[in-house]
Amino acid sequence: MLGSQKKKLEKKREDALSSITGDRVNIELMAQRARPADDPIDRDLLQTVLNNIAAIETAARNASSITELDDLIADGESQGIASAYFCPVGEIRDEGSRAIDNMELWGIPAPSIRKLRESFAGGADQSPLSSYVARAALHAIFIELDEWTDYIDEYEGTMRRYTRWMFGATAALLVIAGLCFYLAHMFPFAMWFGLIAAGAAGSSVSVMAKMPSLDVSLSGELNAYGRRIRSRIATGTIGSLIGVGLLGWGVLPLTIKDSGFADALSACTSYGLAPCPITKMLLVLGVAMLLGVSERTLTSFEQRLLGEGSNQQTPRLR
After folding, report:
1. Do 64 and 95 fall into the same domain?
2. Is there a single domain that holds both residue 21 and residue 87?
């Protein structure tokens, strides 16, 4: 266990040093760009930034935890965006536009991109009058670029982690459902667990198919997505059980190639010496999963049972 933690720490240290080195190189390359004589570099600021990055690099070499290294990576990025203050005045507009164009290619919501362009244009237009104001506008764009980069990394990591969990849960639930259906002829109550597992598996597939897009950042939805996953799976599972019950009772008849769902369900729950045929098991499993996948399950059943007008408002008396 200690060896594994040390290995993770050293891998993180390697990533941190690489990131900090990249920040320093970006600043040095920006400072090396050709510029007219009337656009000198602030040498004192440049030396201060490089000294800060050197101190961050030294701290990263001596860090003893992954959390500390994460903080040092963020500190290095904060110093790295100071490269905006060393950009030649004649290149400020192109540099800012290029950064915004890159963010637009990432799929960032259009309102955010439009607001950035308007804000940057207001500062860049003053470059002939005040180079500091124009560079400050470019620095703000670099800050926005850094924040969106962090958010996209968080988004991709979160979605990858949830997808892994959902895929593993779906595979496990399918195995559990199949086993319960196989044992239902000896233990009829096992069918309940099998139907619950099948409905939850279908709901998990639905969650994987409808992962949120990048624009959830505007509403803060990403931070609450774990709670929404649990709610969606619970709702889908309950809807699947309701649907299976109605189909099993024959309230909503379902027949697939002369094989009725109610008959298949009855065959799989009948006490006997041998399990029900595999085709009937697959029919019950498939229908239960399908009901878990569909978000319209409860609405459809409500309309069939209560009529199409069940969702209409009751007329008010005058």
Report:
1. yes
2. yes
Q: Is the pLDDT of residue 30 over 90?
A: yes
Does a structural domain hold residue 315? no
Domain interval for residue 36: 2-152
Rg, C-alpha atoms of the chain: 30
CB of 175 within 8 A of CB of 264?
no
Q: Return d(Cα 69, Cα 13) in angstroms, integer.
A: 7
Mean pLDDT confidence for 3-15: 88
Range with the poorest average pLDDT among 92-106, 163-177, 244-258, 278-292: 244-258
For the chain, the first-to-last Cα distance in angstroms comes to: 75
Judge whether 317 lies within some domain.
Answer: no
pLDDT at 82: 92
Q: What is the pLDDT of residues 40-91, one digit of tens each?
A: 888 999 999 999 999 999 999 999 999 999 999 999 999 999 999 999 988 9
**Domain endpoint, select from 87, 118, 152:** 152
Residue whose C-alpha is closest to residue 57's, from 8, 85, 21: 21
Checking if the pLDDT of 27 tops 90, the result is: yes
Look at the chain and report how many structural domains it folds into: 2
